DNA sequence: CTTGACCTGTGTCTTACACACAGGTCTAAA
DNA sequence: TTTAGACCTGTGTGTAAGACACAGGTCAAG
């Protein structure tokens, strides 16, 4: 399989396949003309990479996992440990987004009923300057 | 106020203040020795920028808002329109994270009870290869 | 006069690709 | 046979919002 064929097969882009190949996560063979050809084993590796990405592993994580596996060791303990880390991070970001979303919605609601005001030397936009986060958010950092 | 003082005042970093200054969002004066000094008006601009960032505006958005305001026009319509866009984007990302988080949690649960397995030529890690997303997630793209 | 804490600009690094570009290669039609 | 178009190649750059590094200037205190 060639790059574009492979990408289409898995609903990703040629650039993504090339990117993984640059990082040596994929190791296609070369045909006479210089084109990359992906044999079945590389195809299954791509499938693996895409699955792992969907589960929140970083590309760097995947490299570590593949390295481990290429030594013949079971990567499972590493995989379990990594996903705990990533899940914790995701949870943090998730909470942050939850708060952000609420702030944005509140702001939108507050602003719908406020009139426009021209800027002054000390105020760029009174909407933003006057926005008050509500109870749950806006508390200082904890 | 000097860079570090200013950063501390608002709980941000000197690098962030320098970054905004590079982009000319802030325009400090220079003292004899070449140091940047931020007069009160620049201090209030920084406050504005940080508030806007907290509301999900991009730095580029803020530049547009500031540009508009510097022409003497009310930036309010632009601000209302931008936050709608940003909120829509945030909502999308939020839903994506929600799904990701669920997948990660499900994977973690599935994996706690599975044994380790050495890799084979066609399988890097059976945990990841065998993961099945549950109902709500995993549906094809819609 | 030296130490140490601050400041300066500039440049590089991060993530996970997307996109551009100049040029090589293949297929099929004219 | 030529040629158009659709593919491929590598390499280089751009993205967001800073973080970090580095070489060197500045300043107050001892």
Describe the structure.
The structure is a homodimer of 142-residue chains. The first copy, chain A, has six helices and two strands, in the order ααββαααα. In chain A, 60% of the residues lie in helices and 3% in strands. A two-stranded antiparallel ribbon of chain A has the order 1-2. The mean pLDDT of chain A is 90. The first copy, chain A, has a domain at 3-98: Multidrug-efflux Transporter Regulator, Chain: A, Domain 2. In chain A, strand 1 and strand 2 form a beta hairpin. Chain A is mainly α and 142 residues long. The interface between A and B is large, with 57 and 57 residues. Chain A binds a DNA duplex (30 and 30 nucleotides) through helix 2. Chains A, B: Keywords: DNA-binding, Transcription, Transcription regulation. Chains A, B: InterPro entries: DNA-bd_dom_put_sf, MerR-type_HTH_dom, MerR_fam. Chains A, B: Residues 1-68 form the HTH merR-type domain.
List the topology elements:
2 copies of one chain form a homodimer.
Chain A lengths: L2 H7 L4 H9 L6 E2 L5 E2 L2 H15 L4 H12 L5 H37 L13 H5 L12
Antiparallel strand pairs in A: 1-2
Helix pairs in contact in A: 1-2
Chain A binds a DNA duplex (30 and 30 nucleotides) through helix 2.
Question: What does this entry show, briefly?
Answer:
2 copies of one chain form a homodimer. The first copy, chain A, has helices at residues 3-9, 14-22, 40-54, 59-70, 76-112, 126-130, and strands at 29-30, 36-37.
Q: What's the Cα radius of gyration of chain A? A: 24 Å
Q: Mean pLDDT of chain A, rounded to whole units?
A: 90
Structural class of chain A: mainly alpha
Oligomer status: homodimer
Low-confidence stretches of chain A: none
Strand order within the widest sheet of chain A?
A: 1-2
At the first level of CATH, what is the class of one domain in chain A?
Mainly Alpha
- The helix-strand sequence of chain A is HHEEHHHH
Q: Whole-Å distance between the termini of chain A?
A: 52 Å
Total strands of chain A: the figure is: 2
Put simply, the count of helices of chain A is: 6
Biggest interface, chains and residues, is:
A-B, 57 and 57 residues
Largest sheet of chain A, in brief, is:
2 strands, antiparallel
């Amino acid at each position: 399989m060639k790059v574009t064929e492979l990408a289409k097969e898995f609903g990703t882009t040629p650039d993504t396949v090339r990117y993984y190949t640059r990082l040596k996560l994929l190791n296609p063979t070369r045909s006479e003309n210089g084109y990359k050809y992906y044999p079945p084993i590389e195809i299954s590796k791509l499938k693996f990479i895409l699955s792992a990405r969907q589960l929140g592993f970083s590309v760097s994580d995947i490299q570590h996992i593949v390295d481990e596996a290429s030594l013949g060791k079971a990567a499972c303990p590493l995989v379990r440990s990594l996903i705990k880390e990533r899940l914790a991070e995701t949870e943090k970001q998730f909470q942050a987004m939850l708060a952000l979303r609420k702030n944005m919605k509140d702001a939108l609601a507050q602003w719908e009923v406020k009139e426009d005001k021209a800027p002054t030397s000390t105020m760029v936009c009174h909407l933003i300057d006057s926005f008050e986060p509500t109870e749950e958010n806006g508390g200082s950092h904890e």
